[in-house]
Write a structure and sequence with these properties.
Distance between the termini: 40 Å
Helix content: 40-55%
CATH superfamily: NAD(P)-binding Rossmann-like Domain
Number of helices: 8
Strand content: 5-15%
Bound molecules: NADPH dihydro-nicotinamide-adenine-dinucleotide phosphate
Low-confidence stretches: none
Length: 276
């Protein structure tokens, strides 16, 4: 029970990675405030947790709307009395954005900036006064490895902003003892629909492996990283973005076949042991 009686506010907690984070922290004794727009889906996650004897409540808010965020934070405080851990997980990726190329650039940017970047800012700014009252409190932002890739367009740009904001908030929150970090996930399997979009082809196979480990990551693996960043085990880490992508970002994918030319383990091979 690492986080017994702490309060976690997780945005986008009714689905995918956010749901995984809600489950992980609830199992560690945390009271979980699940924030999203679709209340029915949020209530389903609350029921899953409460049926296991864990503590959770749902709160409806659109994180891209500052007044909605302010009202929701007040409700969380009325219910739980404090906020110890904020996870800014709600996000809009290209596939779920319902973006229309006929929309003006301003409208398209608003869609990606609104939830990913404004949402992170509103939640962080309005939670900080409450986080600063608690010991070992923390903010964890969910970014994306899309920050590295031009082909993710405005989503990558907004998430790059999230990483910049992580550093700004880490600097400003440090005097209050609040640590601020980000997790940058690679491909994480959240639903079959998401998998199909990610694969981008009709036969359901990846053209290239989604990670060095030849699989997508799981919401639990991101939740485990969030638990580490919220715990005292990471007490000297702030302002950082931790990439959790199964090694995706360290590969030069166009040259991946060169491994076959030079031979696997050509650098790490030891001639003393022939076991691998
Ligand atoms: P989705 O991105 O599909 O789900 C997004 C979640 O955010 C839902 O719970 C949704 O609930 C909520 N949400 C979206 N917009 C708003 C809003 N304006 N206000 C409040 N809540 C909102 O889920 P994933 O689990 O895939 O992604 C979670 C995070 O991880 C996102 O930030 C995403 O960008 C990031 N990420 C995901 C990766 C992946 O491979 N899955 C890879 C890299 C990063 P509702 O619709 O009910 O509001």
């Amino acid at each position: 029970m690492k986080f017994k009686n702490k309060v976690l506010l997780v945005t986008g907690g009714n689905f995918g990675i956010g749901r995984g984070i809600a489950h992980k922290f609830a199992a560690e004794g945390t009271h979980v405030a699940i924030v999203a727009r679709n209340e029915n889906r949020s209530k389903e996650v609350v029921t899953e947790l409460v049926e296991q004897g864990l503590s959770a409540k749902s709160f409806q808010a659109d994180v891209s709307n500052e007044d909605s965020v302010i009202n929701m934070i007040d409700e969380v405080l009325e219910n739980f009395g404090q906020i110890d851990i904020l996870v800014n997980n709600a996000g809009v990726g290209s596939s779920r954005s319902k973006i229309d190329r006929k929309d003006k650039p301003g409208k398209r940017w608003e869609i990606f900036r609104g939830t990913n970047l404004d949402g992170t800012y509103f939640l962080s700014a309005h939670s900080l006064p409450h986080l600063s009252k608690q010991n070992n409190s923390t903010i964890i932002n969910i970014s994306s490895t899309a920050t590295f890739h031009g082909n993710w367009g405005l989503y990558g740009a907004a998430k790059a902003g999230v990483e910049g904001m992580t550093r700004s908030f880490a600097a400003e929150a440090a005097p209050y003892g609040v640590r601020v970090n980000a997790i940058s996930p690679g491909w994480i399997e959240t639903s079959s629909e998401q998998t199909a979009v990610a694969q981008g082809n009709s036969d359901g196979q990846w053209d290239m492996p989604p990670s060095l480990l030849n699989r997508m990551g799981t919401p639990e693996e991101i939740a485990n990283t969030a638990a580490f960043l919220a715990s005292s085990e990471s007490s000297f880490i702030t302002g950082q973005t931790l990439i959790v992508d199964g090694g995706l970002m360290i590969m030069d994918y166009p040259s991946i076949s060169s491994l076959e030319v030079v031979g696997h383990r050509v650098f790490s091979h030891s001639d003393r042991y022939e076991t691998l």
